[in-house]
Task: structure prediction
Amino acid sequence: MIGGIDCHADFHVAAALDPLGRLLGTESFPATCAGYRSTHGWLASFDPIAAVGVESAGSYGAALVRSLTQQGCRVIEVNQPHPHTRARRGKDDAIDAEAAARKVLSGEATAAATDTTGIVEAIRQLSIARNSAVKARTAALCQLGDLLVTAPAALREQLDTRRALEGKAAVCVRLRPDTGRLADPAQAAKAALRSLAQRINQLGAEAAELERHLDKLVAVAAPADAA
Result:
């Protein structure tokens, strides 16, 4: 049999077709480990599974794809129905699941779903976290620079000994605002600048740690590139 699955954040809807394209049934399952096992069991209850077409295989369906792959299923990535099709037929999860199965049966969909069980997926996940830390650190540096533009002159002069924003941030970490006088703009500026500088240091440390983890994984996955 050929399966088709329409994936969502909290549940997935599956459809089963026989080799002649006749609909055997549709069923909804929770997006949980138990739900993934039940999905496989339900599909397999009709006939041996030839292939399963999965919508949103790289997002909502990623965990389901891993589960089905581990159970020996051939999983095919299926694009979402064309907007014209949805406009004509309406949005129906069971219809979308059936359509996914029919795309596999007809040969319209043939690309295997991305394997997210190995080291490449681990590298992707760590890269997302690292890139997020780098982006947030850059934003914090820009905020620190913007705040310095309007800071009291005496404070700006104290920081003018460093030209780069990273250097100014290193000085700002050592600022000691009087927290009892934060109504004074000078003290508030010191507190804000120190907070941003501490955030910059923390994000830099996070990015560096993730980079070390990535270097180790890349050395295993692609030793020639790492060298």
